[in-house]
Amino acid sequence: MQTLEIQRRFLEYFQRNGHTVVPSASLISQDPTVLFTIAGMAPFKPYFLGQQTPPWPRATSVQKVLRTLDIENVGQTTRHCTFFQMAGNFSFGDYFKAGAITHAWTLITSSVEDGGLGFDPERIWVTVYKNDDEAIRLWEEIAGLPAERIQRRGGEDNYWDMGVPGPGGPCSEIYYDRGPEYGLPGGPVADEDRYIEIWNLVFMQDVRGEDSPKYDFPPVGSLPEKNIDTGMGVERVAFLLQGVDNVYETDLMRPFIATAEQLSGRTYGENHTDDVRFRVIADHVRSAALVIADGVTPSNEGRGYVLRRLIRRVIRSIRLLGVTEPVMATLLTQVRDLLGPIYTDLATDFDRILRVAVAEEDSFRKTLESGSKLFTDAAAQTTAAGSSAVSGSTAFALHDTYGFPLDLTLEMADEVGLSVDVAGFKRLMDEQKARARADAKARKGGFADQHVYRELLELGATEFTGYDELTSEGTIRGLIADGERIPAAKAGDIVEVVLDRTSLYAEAGGQDSDAGQILGSGLSAEVLDVQKIARKLWVHQVRVTEGELTEGASVITAVDAANRARANQAHSATHLVNAALRELLGPDALQAGSYNKPGYLRLDFTWSGGLSGSARAEIEAAANRAITDNLAVTTSLSTVAEAKARGAVALFGEVYGDVVRVVEIGGPWSLELCGGTHVARSSEVGSLVLLGESSVGSGVRRVESYVGFDAFNHLAAERALLENLTGLLKVPSKELPSRVAGLVERLKTAEKELAAMRAAAVLSSAGSLVDGAQRLGDVELVAAALPSGTSAGDLRALAGDVKGRLGGRPAVVALFGEVDGTVPFVVAVTDAALATGLKAGELVKAFLPDIQGRGGGRPELAQGSGTNAAGTDDALASLRVTLGGSNG
Ligand code: SER
Asked: How many domains is the chain partitioned into structurally?
C-alpha cells in the first residue's frame, strides 16, 4: 500500500468517526522550548493544557515532524529519519482509553477491502504503562488480545511527554511482529527489531514538572480534562505494508536512493559506508525541502543552522559517493514530484525553494573547494612534521571559516591515513562558545536562560496595548537579573521587567523596540531594550534611575512618542519599498529579512544580480509616489487562509488556527502580515531616499533608505556638498559633470606631458653623468640616483646612452630610479670592463639587500627593482666597496 493511500485511509477513518481533519501545521514550532514541530500533538498543546478552547472535541491530522537530535545517527541505522509523518487522532476531553484502543484496533486490523490497513491481528502485540491495569483489561476486552501479547513496561518506554514541562501521560504502544527471521521471540521487551512499533496511544492526563514521570518523578498536576493523543508512524506502517525491510525502501524514500545511484554509478546495499551516504541523502533532502517550504533560510543559528547542516550533509555525502556536479536541482525536483501531492507548497513555491537550496549548494561547494585545499596543505605539513594527527586548530579553522563539521574533517583525515586532535578542536570550540556567551550577555544583559520565562509565562501572556495607546497601566509580574527572579531592583541596577500589560513595542518583524520609561510613584526606569519571549511575554530591559522596582508594583509604561512616530515612518516605509520592489521586479523578489529603526530601514530580498541605476531610481520613485498619494494604512485581523487567499506574502511559521494581523497600504498594493506599528496615512512617512543596493550573500540583495526628516537631512547635506563644488568650480550645478570631466581630461594630458619632459631631462643628463665618472681601481663608475618618476625604461635608455659615450673605457654604469615607492635599477658594464672579468649580473647582488630588491641579468646588463627607496645611497656605497674603491 502506497504511503499516500495509508494517509488517506487514516484520515478518512477518523473523519468517518467524528474527527475534524486538521491540516499539518508548519514544521516551525510555535513553542519556545523546541525549534521544530516534534510530534503530531505539538500544535494542540494549548488545548491539552486548557489555555485555549479547542474548536472541536475530536481531531485528526497527518503532521510533518522533524527531529534532528539524532542527526548523526541518520543513515547509520535504517531506523532513524529526521523528517517523518505522524498520523494521529486527538480527543480533547471527549473519548479516552476505550475509544483510543477501539479506533486503533479497528483501523489496523480491518481488511483492506473494508478501508482498513489489513494487519494480521495475530501478529499484533501491545505494551502498557507498568500499573495501567485498565489498559490491559481494555485490550483484552476490545481487541481480544491474549494476555501474553500484552506487556508492561516502565516509564522510560511507556510514559510520553514533550521532554519539557507540559502535558504528558502514560501510553500504550502497538507493535507488529515481523517474524522469527528478524530476531528473538518474546515480544517488544525482547527485541524491537523483530517487533516494530507502529502506533503510540498517549492517555494525556498529567502536567509534567521539571522532572519527567518517565523517570518516576510524580506529575505536578492533572490536566483539566482527560485527553487522547496518538501518533502512528506513517513511514513505518508503509514499510511493513509494502513488504520491504525498512523505511528507506518505501515508495517515498527509495527513489532518492535510486537517483543517487544513477548520479554516482554506485550501488546501494554493497557496503555500509556508502549505504550511510545514500540514506543521508534520501532523508535530508526531504527534510531540507520541507523546512525551506516553511520559510527557513540557511544561516548560522537556530533553525537556519539545522537547515544548513541538512543541505551540507547531502552535498558532502554525494561528493563522498564520487559526484562532483551540483545535485540539488535534481533531488529537489524529485521531492516536489513525490511529496508535492501531500505538501502542495513544495510545488507552488518550488522556484523559491530551489533558489534557496541551490544558493546554499553553490556557496558550500565553493567553501568545500577552498577548505579542501587548506586541509590538503595541513595534511601534508602534518606528515612532513612526522605527526599522524591533524592539529585541533586546523580542524577549528575548517569549522569556523569553511563550515566543515568535525566529522567531515575526520572523514577526510581518515581517507589519507591521519587522525585529528579532537580534544584540541573541542577546546577551541568551547573557548569560542564562551566568548559568544560573554558577547551576548554584554549586548542584551540576559535573555538567555529560558526557565524563568517559562515560569512567568505560566502566569499568562503580556497584553500589548501599544497599538492604541502610548502610556498604559500595568503590574510588575516579575523582575529578573542574571537569569534568576529577584524581588526588587534599586537605582542604578540593570534588570529585566515582565509586566501584565505594556505599551512598549518589543523588537519583532524587523522593527526595533520602543524607547521609553517605566514610571511609578517615586520610581522611574529607562527602557533599554524590549524583547518578546515565545511571542507572548514582553521582557523589558531597564536601568532603574530612581526609587525601587518591586514585584507586584503598579507602574505606567510610557513610550517615547517622538521616537515611536519616527519608528512608524520607518516601518511603513519598509512596506512601501517592499511593494515597490515587487511591482518592479515581480513576485520573485521575496523579502528575506528587514530591519528598521527611526529614520532608517534596510530590506533584504531574494534576487540574483545587482539592480541597475534606473531600477533603483524607479523603486525610489514608486515609494515616493505612494507617499505623495497619501494612501490609507489599515490594519485588520484575519485567518491565515483568508490572508493567503488575498495574496499576503511571508506566511511563515503561522499555524492553521492563528489569527494574523494584516497591514495594507493603498489596499492590496501593499499587503503584509505584520505585527509592527505604522503611520495612519502614507504621507506621514514624509520622504524616502534610497541609499544604495548591495549583495548580502548569494542570491540575496539589500536596499537601505533614510526616511522622514532623516531623508530630508540626507538630501540637504548632499545639496550643501553640491553648492560647495559649484562654488569651487565656479559653474552652475548643471554644468558640474562636464566641468569635472574636462578637468580630469586636462589633468591626464598634463601628467603625460610632464612624464615626457622628465624623461627628456633624464636622458639629457648622460653627458654630465659621464663627466662625473669616478675611478675605482681598474674601472670607472658612473652612478646616479635619478629623480622620482624615472622608470625602468628611462633607466635603460639612459644607460645605453652613457655606455655609448664611454666608448672603449672600462666602466660600470649603475642607475637608480623611483616610481611609486619602488626603486627600479639598471647596471651596465662596458666591453672593456667585461674583459677585466666584471659581470653586471654579479654586481647587482652587492646591493640588493640595501634596497630589498630582486633582479639579475646578463654580464653586460642587469636590472631589477627594490622596495626600499631609502636604501639607494647605501646601495651605491655597497657597489663602490665591491668595485674596490673606498666607501665614499
Ligand atoms: N505524542 C506521541 C508521540 O509523539 C503520540 O502522538 O509519540
From this structure: 5
